[in-house]
Structures are given as structure tokens and as C-alpha cells.
Design brief:
Oligomer: single chain
Bound molecules: zinc ion
Largest sheet: 3 strands, mixed
Number of domains: 2
Distance between the termini: 32 Å
Structural class: alpha+beta
Order of helices and strands: HEEHEHEHHEHEEHHEEHHH
Strand content: 5-15%
Number of helices: 11
Length: 333
């Protein structure tokens, strides 16, 4: 059985002890070791006589506006049914009473062999007690986060965060015929607390590449927020609603779009919370702790040099768990 991590000290004190930017010795990844080389980090197209390099989309990128509130793709629907096709299940049990009541309506499980292959923590537990096919989830983790975790690891490993919580439904989705049974989809709002909870679960299960996946989403959120803040800071709105853009007077109305109106709003306070303190203590997970410490510092004021503003290889080396000789989860199909 898995139990919650121990020891929660102040995040600020821990951050102060973490090193600044330099290469780190990272623990080995358990995924993708068989692949000799990562995929290229840039794709190229030829244009005229020269070659134009296009930057790869950030692995954490997503656009919530493109995601339906309740409709999912046929591929996601097929994956849902495939992950449920097993007679050899490991069931997740919630320690929190409210979450346990919710889960009673629909037990959440994953294939035994899948979980053994993905989670070193569960593999150890199963070796010690092969008849125990239960994982006990600490009260600081919700059944929704279990739902996400199962989607990421089954039926095959994903390389992006899912878009919806998926539940069994007795009522068919509007306009969808599904001969294997109806699926209720609920759009995931990937707010900071939801992401941090997924890191907590990934750490409990020791599935380190899921921590990398969450770090990428947080990094993308930070970059987007910084970009918009820079745009707003560079503009001074005059009384008549005109701003100077590259030497021209451009009318944009009386106000710039407020940053909180974006899909996310990261703040220093968020990263000095109890939840983050929990990330920085307990189980050894230096890359994630270092990222959380760096992003908290960056939100207080720009760093020079900024360790968050590095090429992908450098970002992986500093904040991800895989070796430089092993591919990033994001480069796997
Ligand atoms: Zn990586």
C-alpha cells in the first residue's frame, strides 16, 4: 500500500537552500530507455533558396477555448473503452471519506500489468504482497486526479495532459452512438492547484515523467503570462485610447486586456502555499522542486540570466527527470 509523503516545511526556507542555475545530476528515467535518440527539436521547411526554421510548439501548450465542455474525440472515446478492458485490475481507494463516497459510485481502476510497468512504487508494493491489488490515495488527492492519472498511463502512455475527466454514463452524449457504452466527459480546467495535485500523485506513484509533463504546462503558462505582461508594460494608454506601437499611434480603446482575464494567473503567493511546501519536502524529487523554486523567484522579479528561458535541451537537463541520453516524454509518439 502506498502512503502519503512525510514532512512539510516552509517553501520559502527550502527555496533559499536550492542552487541557482547550473547543470544537475538527475535520477534515471524509467520510460523510453530503449530509444537511442530523441526526436529533433526543430522542424524545417524549405522556402525559396533558403531554409526557414520553425520552432516546435511548446509541449505544455494548449488552448482551453478550443476544447468542448462535454464532447470528446472518437480516439479519446476508444481509449476510454480500451483502458477498461481488463480482468486483472488494481483499484484506487480514497482515504478521504467524501472522495471515497464519490468513488463508490464508479470505482477507478487500471490494468495490473500496466501499473506494474509504469509505477515503481506500485511494483515494489505488489512484490511484497502480490494479492494486494489496492492503492490507497492520500486525502490531499482527489478522485478527479486519479481519473487524469489513469488516462495518462493507459491504455498507452500519453505525451500530453488530457482535456476531460471521463466517467461512465447511463445517458448517451448528445449526437453520439457508442455501442460500448456512454461516456460522460467533463472539461478539465488546468488551474495551478489541479496541476500541483497531479504532481503529488505522480510522486506518490514515482511516475516521474508525469511530473515533467506538469512542469512543461506550468512553464508554458508562465511564458504566456510573461509575454502578455511585457506587452501591457510596453504600452501606455493615453486618455483618448491611443497607444504607440512601433512608432505608430494605434487605437485600442480605454483599457488594455487585464492579465487576470487570461486563462491563468500565476502569482508568487501561489508558489509559497502549503501545497508547494509539500512538493519541496518529503520524497526526493529535485528537478520538480528546483523548477517550483525558480518559477517562484521569477514571479518575484526577472532573473538574469533567467534559468526558465533556455533552449529545450537545457530545460530538460535542469527540470526533467530523464537523462540527456534518453528521450523526453514529449518526444515519444
Ligand atoms: Zn524532457
Amino acid at each position: 500500500m502506498l502512503q502519503p509523503g512525510q514532512g512539510h516545511e516552509g517553501a520559502t526556507a527550502i527555496m533559499a537552500t536550492l542552487p541557482s542555475a547550473h547543470p544537475m545530476q538527475l535520477p534515471p528515467s524509467t520510460r523510453g530507455e530503449q530509444l537511442a535518440e530523441a526526436l529533433p527539436h526543430e522542424r524545417q521547411i524549405t522556402q525559396g533558396n533558403g531554409t526557414l526554421k520553425l520552432p516546435q510548439v511548446h509541449p505544455g501548450w494548449h488552448n482551453p477555448d478550443d476544447i468542448s465542455s462535454y464532447q470528446i474525440s472518437s480516439v479519446d472515446r476508444a481509449r476510454y473503452h480500451l483502458r477498461n478492458r481488463t480482468n486483472d485490475v488494481v483499484t484506487f481507494h480514497m482515504i478521504d471519506k467524501h472522495e471515497a463516497d464519490v468513488s463508490d459510485h464508479e470505482p477507478q481502476f487500471v490494468d495490473y500489468d500496466v501499473l506494474i510497468a509504469i509505477s515503481p512504487a506500485y511494483a515494489r508494493s505488489a512484490r511484497a504482497n502480490p494479492k494486494d491489488t489496492s492503492v490507497y490515495i492520500p486525502s490531499n488527492i482527489s478522485s478527479r486526479t486519479i481519473n487524469v492519472f489513469i488516462q495518462i498511463i493507459s491504455p498507452v502512455c500519453a505525451n500530453t495532459l488530457p482535456t476531460h475527466y471521463l466517467w461512465k454514463s447511463v445517458k448517451p452524449a448528445s449526437g453520439v452512438y457508442d455501442r460500448f457504452g456512454a461516456v460522460k466527459a467533463e472539461k478539465i480546467e488546468w488551474a495551478l492547484d489541479v496541476l500541483l495535485e497531479l504532481i503529488l500523485l505522480a510522486r506518490e506513484m514515482e511516475v516521474w515523467w508525469i511530473c515533467d509533463m506538469v512542469v512543461d504546462r506550468l512553464h508554458w503558462m508562465y511564458q504566456e503570462q510573461t509575454k502578455f505582461q511585457d506587452i501591457c508594460a510596453a504600452m501606455t494608454v493615453s486618455a483618448n485610447g491611443y497607444v504607440q506601437i512601433e512608432g505608430k499611434q494605434v487605437y485600442i480603446g480605454s483599457r488594455l486586456p487585464p492579465i487576470p482575464a487570461l486563462h491563468f494567473n500565476l502569482s508568487t503567493d501561489d508558489f509559497e502555499s502549503q501545497a508547494v511546501a509539500q512538493m519541496l519536502t518529503g520524497r526526493a524529487d529535485m528537478p520538480t522542486a528546483l523548477f517550483l523554486a525558480d518559477i517562484a523567484r521569477a514571479l518575484k522579479g526577472r532573473m538574469n540570466p533567467d534559468p526558465l528561458d533556455v533552449p529545450r535541451n537545457g530545460f530538460c537537463a535542469r527540470y526533467h527527470h530523464h537523462k540527456s541520453s534518453s528521450p523526453c516524454y514529449a518526444a515519444l509518439p
